[in-house]
Design goal:
Number of helices of chain A: 3
Oligomer: heterohexamer
Helix content of chain B: over 70%
Radius of gyration of chain A: 25 Å
Distance between the termini of chain A: 83 Å
Structural class of chain A: mainly alpha
Number of strands of chain A: 0
Largest sheet of chain A: none
Largest interface: A-B, 41 and 56 residues
Number of strands of chain B: 0
Order of helices and strands of chain A: HHH
Bound molecules: sodium ion
Largest sheet of chain B: none
Distance between the termini of chain B: 60 Å
């Protein structure tokens, strides 16, 4: 039984220690991210010009710094969804099941369409 | 010729299941049917309980040879399993080798939004507090005196309210209890909306339940991308034995958040998770066969598991709520203690319960998002707890 | 050859025995289901009231007793589909290939949308 | 240096396939190309025949080392297979260990609607009668005197008109015939619309063919959910050796009907079934390599398999139709004997043939749904028959 | 080093030999296909009649001889796609990412819908 | 009790990663983080580099036991791997046994349109010429004197600009270099738009770059269906050791083109490829762990690999362009030499680079489709080259 109690104390300690360490790290890195974002926002106009002359960049760089948890949904769409959720929340507290708002990714391999495009282009 | 015919039919009949079914088989088949009913009609975690219950059903129809428990006695010979194993033995390799649960965590990671946790990192404390359900139950299980430490650890992980974690740990520490523990874990997860509210109400005042929490700040994409990387590094450094679960959970989340591997994120969430869920459920259920469960004292053990599982959930809920009350005090009344109960995980059920109970006290109260923080923190917390148990008892 | 004949007889016997046993079981359980359904239908009005006060029920229970092989498709939809099939049956007996009438399941994890919903709700 | 270059090129040339190809390789490659043509241009069961024929093609291009038949001689060493096996040897493990066919049955179960069978349970008798094609052919195969009982059993299962069942049984009883039997099974399944109509017309009167059957009653969701559970219990109890096929078929159907695990049902039908189909077809085809088929007497055996397969289909069709005539009599003319031929399985082709032949006799006749009953019953029936053969001959 | 040079020469030789052999085979078989297609096109009217009386053919034979890299897309659709691609090509040379033009295959098992169809047919 | 607690915590701490991390671990973790940054922010082949970098990260967090390099020393015991292997050891079996890369090629084949190659078969010469990048680099690697012939062959295959081919060959010839070579291969593939244009411009005149090529003829379905069958037969006959890659690539393409197995084509492209990509990337990355890379001289080797990889890409590009100039001459100026650089593969990036550079010289110039011919030819070419290297060095 002493062993059992011991294990329980150790376990609780380690779980708390791990999660507290994560808290600290989150606080630190979110602060850093916020700082960098602020600096970037100020200098963003300047960079825009110099970037565009940078040469070949086949994929456009993903804008990882934009602070948005809505993945760029339009305000109209949000309004519609909001209304739906509100209706749902009124009628029932428990049955809350909202469908995800998501864009389907397109992963079609580019070289699949090569033959077709070429053919089409020749008709232009 | 007639004689030959009679002989052959007699032989077939004696080889049929009817001639070989035992009383314990019938009991276990009945239990499997009850779980099928609960899963299908009552919607008890059907994604896992339908395969688990079906696996339990077919493993108890005698002589199917789908699973041969004797092959899994120590020392295991994989060459023998490949030579003599039935279909479920072969699929069970993924459980025994610890492959399926981490892959399910990969899919769960790709489905999980840690945003609410990043916006309010203190939630992690609630996710930690609720794990006391695990360690409290461990003490209780050892006190009963009928379980080895390994068995007690496996039973207590039910309090983690996380199916794959429970299966992963039990398959390593006490595979003989895998069936009952998986059934108990998923059943209690389904019962969270029944178990938690009375405890939450008993431990909080109406004033506390009415607290409307402050809107969470929006979380940037960069923060979300960095989160899984940082958590992986910290947790694996502190408790390496939790690496398979935590690393896969975080890899899945990185797939989701990084935005450049949508293909992988989609497959991790769907095809891969579903295939593994079928194999995992079926084979975990099949371990609950009469061949394996007929040792003396098993009935008492099974009842104890049911009881201890309930205790684990209740203690975890209470610990979460009580820690929530502490945070309510320290924050000057800004934190609603009801979100503490969500720390047991059981994603997303427990967070919904917080929402429901909070809204009953105050119809303007939307706790769902605030409760998602402790809720997903509880997943990390119980994976860490499983790592500790494996490290000490394994 | 005697062995072969023997096996053929045994095999046929076992196949028939199994399938006859299944027939019997189907007859029995479908009769039971029908009986229960009839009883349920009578008492359904009474139960509706008492059920609603029963407390938390996060998922609405699937209505497994309704006798419908059409999964709740609307009559209009059925009319459209019927017309399509009829057209198809007229023109050809063999090439009969009707596309399935099915609803796509939504399996979006609820906790994916949590952040978005919360954000949206705050605008209400 | 020139000498070294010449030596190296000579060595490469002597190691190339051109230098090592045999006459039998060329024959088998030609056959593979014919099957590719049939699958792609003539739509002969392309989902299986494209991979099977391609597997046969590449296994007969010498020295690719993709498959090494000698590794599979008894006694099998799995450690050796892992050390020395080529790509197709490794994928073939899923066939040899009996994993792929049950998983395909899982997908088939999730695609099958047993409603017509539940609405008209007597259909099961037709599904049983048509299995006489299997047992009749077994007698014929043994009578030829060139096959062992295990080989005869594997050949006769072609009459089950069910590809995965045939592959599953053959891989256990007579793996040396796996390639030819799989090719014959799928080819004849594709030929059902050619083979069956003359037999059906010969054995029935126009009056019988014109019978319009009564509308089937609607089947409730509860009945559909209970069906797979009950069939699993009955069949596995009676003939445990059929468990892997029947249990997986019924689990897939339970996924489909229970309505609470759509994710699993969808993946079982699509991603999982497709992946397994690719691996199964490719490796089963690869067993038809010259290395394996060059033993004396094989040509005669191959021709016998083709002949016996045709007999099996024909006898099965005839038995189904004749039993249908019996039921026509006993029901007072309410049952159209044409639905009996659908009992051979070959889902859904055979049911469509019943529809077509019935509609030719009477344009107002819609037998499709009535024929689906015996059709899906035939799947269960041949799985049971395979279990009996395995139990007696295995 | 001599060995290395040797390997490089052999490797280059084998790669070229293989790919030249493929070139030759492509030239041969495409010529044969073209020849057969020409002959078929001439005789296509005759065959159409005789084929239709050929008996049961549950699946319509795939028309593998039609020379089309566009999989039967309608001209209107092509026009739209063409315009889109043209627009895309103008604005940027590098970011060229056209989505595939494809029809989704329907693989719904026919026997899934049997119960529904039968039920529907009875209402006609 | 306090003492016991302290002891236990001390033991846990000494078992934690913090106590065991080495300097080399930290270096490799930093490199992994850099690659994650490149993959996610700079879009460097993220589908592979995200899993590879994450695998490298977790394999260097000590004591996770996810991967145990010592299990993979010769002679390998698969029984031992199953008994003692961690999660990544078990998933790595698919790399070691040569299963993953061919399955990825199956998916690539199902995504590839060989139409432009069939319309203009001479493209194959450019696809062959660009492989000189491989063989030229082999000479260079041997000249350095720090690599075995097997290692030199594995490094030179980076010039094939084809990730799965590089992984496949390296896992057979020099598995100890798998991590660095995979990272180099995918990085340089991502850098193709930076590496190639200067070389292309330096070696061509403006007049050559301005050449507008003749419209490609439409290719019939029959030609597209026959292509994968014929290429399989030819290549496997000439160089049997390339069979796993080429046969799977062509089977995938047959699935795509034959039009009767859309289900299989779809799953090969998506679910199957994605699952394998996750497992492949994760485990290949995990081979780049400190345990494995700490032998003396590794730093020099790693730098050499980076340098040789760049040389390989450059030589391949140059060889392609120069051969393009030869064809420009022989064709009387009808062929634009810029399409030669696409022969290195790196599909479809290299073809896009040809398009971009060509359009810069002449805005009316659409080379994309013409460059797709050499581009896909380069895939076949480097698979053949890998077969030659395996055959001679394996
Ligand atoms: Na938890
Ligand atoms: Na059958
Ligand atoms: Na290449």
């Amino acid at each position: 039984m002493k062993d059992a109690l011991n294990l329980a104390i150790i376990g609780t300690t380690v779980v708390f220690a791990s999660l507290v360490l994560i808290i600290i790290c989150i606080k630190i890195y979110t602060a850093i991210v916020a700082m960098i974002n602020n600096r970037n926002n100020k200098s963003i106009n300047k960079n825009n010009d110099s970037d565009s002359g940078k040469g070949i960049s086949v994929h456009s760089t993903t804008n990882v710094n934009s602070s948005s948890s809505l993945d760029g949904l339009s305000p109209e769409l949000i309004a519609v969804i909001t209304a739906a959720i509100a209706a749902c929340m009124d009628s029932s507290g428990a049955g809350l099941q909202v469908k995800s708002i998501k864009r389907i990714g397109h992963n079609t391999p580019i070289w699949n369409v090569a033959g077709r495009n070429e053919h089409i282009l020749s008709k232009i | 010729m007639w004689q030959a015919f009679v002989n052959a039919i007699t032989k077939l009949a004696s080889e049929s299941g009817f001639a070989n079914i035992t009383y314990l088989n019938l009991v276990l088949i009945s239990i499997a049917l009850v779980f099928l009913y609960l899963a299908i009609v009552k919607n008890y975690e059907p994604l896992l309980l339908v395969p688990i219950a079906f696996g339990m059903l077919i493993a108890n129809l005698p002589l199917g040879g789908l699973m041969n428990p004797s092959l899994w006695d120590d020392p295991i010979s994989f060459e023998a399993i490949l030579h003599e194993g039935g279909l479920l033995d072969l699929l069970y390799l993924g459980v025994k080798l610890g492959i399926y649960p981490p892959l399910i965590f990969l899919g769960i990671g790709a489905m999980t939004d840690f945003g609410p946790l990043i916006a309010n990192p203190k939630s992690l404390l609630l996710g930690a507090a609720a794990q006391f359900g695990i360690f409290g139950t461990y003490i209780g299980a050892m006190a009963l005196g009928i379980f080895t430490p390994q068995q007690a650890g496996s039973i207590s992980i039910i309090g983690g309210a996380d199916g794959p974690t429970a299966i992963w740990l039990t398959s390593k520490l006490a595979p003989e209890l895998l069936g009952p523990i998986a059934l108990a874990a998923y059943s209690y997860m389904a019962l969270v909306p029944i178990i938690q509210p009375p405890i939450m109400k008993a431990l909080t005042t109406k004033k506390e339940r009415e607290v409307v929490m402050q809107q969470l700040r929006p979380v940037s994409k960069t923060e979300k991308i960095l989160f899984p990387i940082i958590v992986t590094i910290i947790v694996v450094l502190i408790i390496p034995s939790a690496a398979p679960l935590v690393a896969m959970l975080m890899l899945g989340n990185l797939f989701k958040e990084c935005g450049v591997v949508e293909r992988l994120s989609d497959t991790a969430q769907n095809a891969l998770t579903n295939i593994i869920t079928i194999f995992l459920g079926l084979t975990v259920g099949a371990t609950a066969s009469a061949d394996k469960l007929s040792q003396p004292g098993f009935g008492l053990q099974a009842l104890s598991i049911i009881l201890l599982g309930l205790i684990a959930f209740s203690v975890g809920t209470a610990a979460g709520v009580l820690f929530g009350k502490v945070m309510y005090k320290f924050s000057g009344g800004k934190i609603n203690p009801l979100i503490g109960s969500a720390g047991v995980s059981a994603v997303p059920m427990a967070a919904r319960v917080s929402q429901v109970v909070g809204q009953k006290a105050n119809p303007q109260n939307f706790l769902l998002m605030h409760a998602m923080g402790p809720n997903v923190a509880g997943v990390i917390g119980s994976a860490v707890a499983a790592g500790v148990l494996l490290s000490i008892l394994g």
